[in-house]
Amino acid sequence: MLEVDGLKKRYGDKVALDGVSLTVRPGEMYGFVGANGAGKTTTMRIVMGVLASDGGEVRWKGAPAGFETRRRFGYMPEERGLYAKMRVGEQVEYFGRLGGMDAPAARRSADALIERLGLTDRRGDEVAGLSLGNQQRVQLAVALIHEPELLVLDEPFSGLDPIAVDALAGVLAERTAAGVAVVFSSHQLDLVERLCDAVGIIKDGRMIAGGTVAELRARESRKRLRIVVTGAEPGWADRLPGEIVAKNDRPPQGDPAGPDGDQRYDEVILRPSDDQEALLLAARAGRVQHFGWQEPSLAEIFREVVA
C-alpha cells in the first residue's frame, strides 16, 4: 500500500503542497485530479523521489520509501522521458536493464509488452518517427517493463485517440487485477470516473475531497432531483423548495396528436430542501413525466468542490 502522509513543498514564497495525504491500495486504480498547478505533478515527483519534500513522508508497505523501494515503482512523467533516436525495442529493453533485469528477462518482457501494446510493427522504428499515441504506448512499456508493484502515471491519456485510450486502459486493468497499485492524474474526468476505484481532488496544494465516486456522490449536499413536467404555466418552478441547479423549459411545440399534445415542457434539476413538497408542487403545476434522484458526474462534483 502506498501512503502519502502530510507532504509539504514550497518554492520560495509559493506553497506547492500543504499537507497532502492519500492512500492507494494494492489492486486499486486511483485517479488524482485537479486544475493545472494544483500540485499533482509535484506530489508524483516526490513519491518517485525526483523531488525532495519539505515535510511529510511517503511510505510503501508501511515503511518509508527509499531508493531500493522506488526501483519497484513504474513512472510515466507528463513530459515524456524517451530517447528520440533509439529504436522502440532497444529502448524498452534498455529501461528493463536499468530496472535491474538481466538481458534475457528484459528481452522477454519487452517482447510481451510490445505485442500487448500493438507496437510489433514499430519495434525497429526510432521513437522520433512515431505518432504521439505510439510514443505514449512506448512510454507505458518503459514504465511496465520491470513489472513494478506501483505505477505512477502523470497524464497518461493526454492526446490519445479513443482506440489508444482503450488499449492503455485495458493494460492498466490487467495490472490492477494482478494486484498492482496504480495512481494516475488526468483532466479527462469522464475517463477517471469510468476507470478508477477511488479519486482524490487537489486544489492549491491541499486535498479537498477523496473517496470512491459513489462516496463523493453520496454527500447530502449533492443530492439532486430531476423533475420533468408538461403542460405547466411559466414560472411554476420558481416556487420549488430548494436550489435550482439547472432549468430547461420549452414552449409548446411538437405533435399535437402525441401523448401530451402540444404542451409546454419543463425540466428542472433541483437540490431540494423538501422533496415531498417539490413533488406536490410539480403535480399541481402539470403532468409529472419524471421525478427522481439524479447522480452527479465526477465533472460536476469536481466543479462544485473546487468552486
UniProtKB/TrEMBL annotation:
The organism's place on the tree of life at top rank: Bacteria
Region (Disordered): 240-265
InterPro entries for this protein: AAA+_ATPase, ABC_transporter-like_ATP-bd, ABC_transporter-like_CS, ABC_transporter_ATP-binding, DrrA1/2-like_C, P-loop_NTPase
Record keyword Oxidoreductase present: no
SMART domains in alphabetical order: AAA
Keywords recorded for this protein, A-Z: Antibiotic resistance, ATP-binding, Nucleotide-binding, Transport
Membrane topology qualifier: Peripheral membrane protein
Localization: Cell membrane
MF-aspect GO terms: ATP binding
Keyword ATP-binding: yes
Main location: membrane
Residue ranges constituting the ABC transporter domain according to the UniProt record: 2-229
Family: Belongs to the ABC transporter superfamily.
Official protein name in the record: ABC transporter ATP-binding protein
Organism name: Sphaerisporangium corydalis
